[in-house]
Amino acid sequence: MKLLDRTSFASPLARTGDTFGDKRRKVLDAMTHRGLDPISFTETVVVPHHIDFMGHIANAHYPTFFQVSHNRLLCAYIAEFTNEEFASAVTGAHEIAPVPIQISTAFRLPVGFPDAIITGGRFAKVDDKIWHIVYEAFSLASGQHVATFDVINRLVDLKTGRAIKISESDAGRELRESRAGNQ
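Request: output the structure for the sequence above.
Response:
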């Protein structure tokens, strides 16, 4: 949990008492209703350097918005469903790393300035070869779903450079059993 604690500043769940409190709560409720994992929720304030010449967030910034959610979701999974030896091997990419093998982004609505983007993710599929995770972004100002980021990860042994089966990591079985009850 130490890694999650270090990124807790990015969680919108801790923000209260500002002018967007009611809107934020509605967005977070909608995200939870869509099956996104609250531990992965992060909020990024849109700043002028995110804006392109057309007045909205440049598409290239979205992966950075999703990355914090991605890290929080994987850290939570590692902390909850694996043993300390595996967690040590993966965190900090010491021996094993989840490596994205396919990433796609679908944009739904433009977002301008001022605004904030709230992102969250959920495991869509876990089998012996992949962790398929779907992330969604919402505009705090409009409350609308504005983009989806789809990531397929493989576990790679960093010493050999070869993909390994998730079951070989002693983590895949627990995750499959856990997520099967949520689907």
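The chain has a mean pLDDT of 82.
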